[in-house]
Amino acid sequence: MSEIPGIVRAWDRPRFKQALQQLERALTTEQELDEARGQALTFIALVTSATLEAGGTKGMHKVQLEAARAMETATSHAEIASIAVKFVTKVVPLLFQEARDPHVELIDVALLLIDKHYSKPLTDADIARAVGLSTSHFRHLFKEATGLPFHRYLLGLRLEKAHAQMGYPGVSVTEVAESVGFACLSHFSRAFTKRFSVRPSEVRKSLEGLPARA
Question: Can you give the residue ranges of every domain in the chain?
């Protein structure tokens, strides 16, 4: 679940759908209802928190309270899973919105390509060509699907990947910036600070001494 906030902030629809499917499978196999309730509420809380960080309204907190109340009366794993999907959809409807254009599935392919090659020099024209769309059509579909123009989406994804790498021991801020596609450290630092309200060096310092990641 640790990846959920980054997925939501990046509006990564394919990976979000995968995460939600994994949650539904997990909830239906949990032996204890209380454990299933806790897992579902944790997922909703992570989605809500990430949405708030991305500019959502403070009314999102009411969704968590409503979800908790609904979970209390659930009597089966399937019902808990259904409630979780209902409230997650309420928090991030854009990630469930189906575009009117039949080429919308190509945007999911594009998002997977971006996630795979985000550290390389990428333009919307490159991705449009890869999925067989004109650049103008791709731009329209991409913004409709993600709510962001391509360059802002790519920037956000790179920053999320960078944030996740800050906990890696022995890796400098410069190395993190370069690994996610930033050629200019000062540009990376400004963008990172604007997105997370903290300088990358401060995040790196706060994580020093943590156990190495697997």
Answer: 4-95, 104-147, 153-207
Could you say which DSSP state residue 30 is in? -
Question: So what's the architecture of 153-207 in CATH?
Answer: Orthogonal Bundle (1.10)
User: Is pLDDT at 183 greater than 80 in this prediction?
Assistant: yes
Which of 65, 48, 62 is CA-nearest to residue 5?
A: 48
Spatial separation of the C-alpha atoms in residues 144 and 45, rounded to whole Å:
26
pTM for this prediction:
0.61
How many other C-beta atoms lie within 10 A of the C-beta of residue 110? 24
154 vs 103, residue with greater confidence: 154
Q: Which residues contact 209 (CB under 8 A, 6 or more apart)?
A: none
AA letter at 20 = L
Structural contact between residues 83 and 91, judged by C-beta atoms closer than 8 angstroms: no
